[in-house]
Amino acid sequence: MHRPSKQRGFTLLEVMVALFILAVSAAALSRAVSQATESTYQLEIRQHAGWVAHNQLSLVLAGAEQNLDGFSQFAGQSFYWKASIATTELKNFRRITIEVSEKSQPDYLLAELTGFQHE
């Protein structure tokens, strides 16, 4: 008489469930890494836009920039900047606001900086 041997290994169902769990975990990890990468890019481009705003405000305050808008290259990226100058309630002071966006998306504001100048 032949005795049945003990079962060794996993059943097909167990392997399929394990592979499904692994696939779902890998997809979730991939999505998390993708979102982290996009967030890092957005932080970087906003930081660069802030520096462009500081540079342009400095040029306007120093009188070296006569234009109220233009394009600027920074860290290999193209930015569009726009300056607006307004009077204030204080006599002989004016408010200068610099808005910066990507050249490819001029309506999407990345940075805004305001300074004041004594005339």
TrEMBL record:
* Chief localization: membrane
Q: How does it sit in the membrane?
A: Single-pass membrane protein
Q: What happens to this protein after translation, modification-wise?
A: Cleaved by prepilin peptidase.
Tell me a GO cellular component. Answer: plasma membrane
Protein name listed in UniProt: Type II secretion system protein I
Coiled-coil annotation reads none
> Where does this protein reside within or beyond the cell?
Cell inner membrane
Give the UniProt family note.
Belongs to the GSP I family.
Which GO terms of type biological process are on file? protein secretion by the type II secretion system
Q: What does this protein do?
A: Component of the type II secretion system required for the energy-dependent secretion of extracellular factors such as proteases and toxins from the periplasm.
Summarize the subunit comment: Type II secretion is composed of four main components: the outer membrane complex, the inner membrane complex, the cytoplasmic secretion ATPase and the periplasm-spanning pseudopilus.
Q: Which residues form the Type II secretion system protein GspI C-terminal domain?
A: 43-117
Alphabetically list the UniProt keywords. Cell inner membrane, Cell membrane, Membrane, Methylation, Transmembrane, Transmembrane helix
Q: Which PANTHER family match?
A: TYPE II SECRETION SYSTEM PROTEIN I-RELATED
Q: What is the lineage of its organism?
A: Bacteria, Pseudomonadati, Pseudomonadota, Gammaproteobacteria, Oceanospirillales
Keyword Cell membrane annotated: yes
